[in-house]
Structure to design on (211 residues):
């Protein structure tokens, strides 16, 4: 097998593992996984809002899932490590999942979106955007966008700073898609530009002296 085909195969397997664990730990506020190759085996770090639901009583659930992964994906000695998310409202995947669950319980989409918009900004985000699309209270589908703060959708910052999450709500009329984008950090050049627009003083930094 060529090197290119090997990495493609491994990338597909990691995507399948991600989808598998996302479905298994949906109730635990699943966010994402990190996969690390070690001399002892494959370490899978699961980031979740409620790690107790991932681990299970006396570690029973984590042991069961580990055995399933070993058989299903042919991994040698997989090890699952669970880590709690420090700021759930700053994790786009967790927020998207919470919004989807609220919609499934019959909540009004505008009220739900505005609530999470406020909580995300209170948690310290620079900007956020929530998109909800589907059949919401009518036969015809619609799409609504809710936004607050500064957010980038293209370019370097969108690719490297913007955190994106998606979830689907299953309701009586069909499915509703939820997409959450959160900008946690603001680039220095953008910060200076925003201060200038607001008329705030911008501190001039002296260039570093070189000997």
């Amino acid at each position: 097998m060529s090197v290119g085909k090997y990495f493609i195969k491994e990338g597909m397997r990691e995507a399948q593992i991600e989808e598998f664990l996302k479905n298994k730990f949906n109730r635990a506020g699943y966010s994402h996984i990190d996969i690390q190759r070690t001399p002892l085996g494959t370490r899978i770090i699961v980031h979740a809002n409620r790690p107790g639901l991932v681990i299970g009583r006396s570690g029973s659930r984590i042991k069961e899932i580990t055995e399933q992964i070993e058989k299903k994906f042919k991994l040698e000695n997989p090890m699952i490590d669970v880590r709690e998310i420090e700021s759930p409202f700053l994790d786009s995947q967790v927020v998207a999942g919470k919004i989807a669950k609220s919609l499934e319980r019959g909540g009004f989409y505008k009220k739900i979106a505005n609530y999470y918009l406020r909580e995300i900004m209170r948690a310290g985000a620079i900007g956020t955007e929530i998109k909800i699309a589907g059949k919401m209270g009518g036969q015809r589908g619609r799409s609504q966008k809710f936004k607050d703060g500064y957010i980038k959708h293209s370019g370097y910052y969108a690719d490297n700073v913007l955190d994106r999450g998606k979830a689907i709500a299953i309701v009586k009329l069909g499915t509703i898609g939820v997409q959450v984008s959160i900008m946690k950090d603001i680039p220095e050049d953008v910060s200076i530009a925003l201060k200038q627009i607001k008329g705030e003083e911008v501190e001039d930094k002296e260039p570093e002296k070189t000997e």
Summary: The CA atoms of residues 111 and 117 lie 10 Å apart. Residues 3-24 form the longest helix (22 residues). Helices lie at 3-24, 51-55, 60-73, 92-104, 109-122, 156-160, 188-198. DSSP finds seven helices and seven strands in the chain.
